[in-house]
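User: Structure please.
Assistant: Input sequence and predicted structure:
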Amino acid sequence: MPSSRTNARRPRLHAIKPICQLLRPIILAAAAAISLAGCAQFRLNPDPEVAPSRTVEASWTPPLSITNANDAASRLQDLRRFDGNSLMQTSPARTYDLPSLVELALRTNPQTRNAWYTALAANAQLGQSQATNYPKIEVDAEGNYLKLPLQFPGQTLVIRNEVFQPQITVSYDLLDFGRTRATERSAREQLIAANFGFNQAIQDVVFSTEKAFYVLAAANASVSAAQANLQLAHISQAAVEGRHQVGLATRPQLLLAAQVEAQAVYDLANAKSMVHDAEAGLRQTIGIAADTDISVQASQLNRLPENLQEDVETLMADALKRRPDIAAQIATVRAGNAAIARARAEFYPEVAVSGNYGQIIWSYTINGGNTQNLNQPFYGALLTLRWDLFTGFDRYYGVQKVTAERDAARAQLRSLQVNVIAAVWTAYYDYLSAQKKYDASQALLKASEESYQANLESHRHGLATITDLIGAERDLMAARYTLIQSKADLLVSSAALVHATGAATASNLRIP
């Protein structure tokens, strides 16, 4: 039963409400002014560590914190380190052949990791797009304590109010006219495109590793050929010196032999330099530092491909069906179609249902009088229809935007298909040409060896001049380099043809 004192003061509460309504906009305006002043001060005082250079001709100097962070992320020893948890045990004593190098590159090359993490992100995006298929559950609790003194003529009222209000809210979209389904379909197609992009990255790394391996093998073979040519120059020079000592060779002929020997020394040094460059290129393709201590078995070019068993038209048709980048672009076009459906669904309403349940715990006193308490549950249900009738043509231009993006993806798909056909065509005839060049280089080397042996024997018996011998020697040296280069070109062209058609391995293309 309320006391008489409480009943006496109850009429005064009706006078408090209009006063609170008058004070509320003043308090809100003051809070907004303070907030804007704080934001303006923040904007007018940028962070001096990341502020740009004061003059146009002076470069920006990064602060020490950024320099230390960049140094921690760019340590050279990290590039020399392999993954210790991998199946392949890496050590300087191990020798890597081409298959093991490809496996190593697939694990360490940043390109494959980037494509893989992109696919993982797309998979998470698909999961996010399905979140609206489930109800949304929220739990919140508000606690409040208020002391408000109010001055009246002859007295001051002090109001104390304590409120604690926990509640749980459940909401669910009943009908969105295809918004959720279109978003999920778009995310699914983007995941498919990311997966195909990952497959394309693997094929790119495999081809790059094969090409770098063949270049290194050719460089090592060039060193062997240069050493053989130097030995050949020593033999020719010894033969000329022997004839010069008995008066059967002139000094210009002796100088010509010395010139060939000096050229052979230069070629050997140049070949060794090419080996260092090729080793750096191979390690770069693998994704490790150029000075990483690994042993590579790339001394010979023994495994040569056989003749093609398919024509160029078949290869081009297979490439259009097999290439992962084309499949990824097709999925991108389908994602564009889903985005158009999502944009068109924005013209329709949304229907949702929600419900809440909570407890209100409330305490109220005036001037230390009797306390009014309340501890009761509250709950409710709500059916909501949301329909934006006019949005300033935002939805209209949204449809135009995603439609243009879909059409751009179609044009890009067409361009990619044309480029793939051209790549297969070029790689096919490059491979055929490389085969013919290799066959010709074999015949050239055999003829050059026979010519040199005949000229050397004739020179020893005085039947051939030193010019003939030196000419045959130079032809033999050039033939050796030609054979090595033709072998490397044949291997690289076969790998390029496999890559252009989108075959996972050479066996898919029938190039053993």
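The first strand starts at residue 95 and ends at 96.
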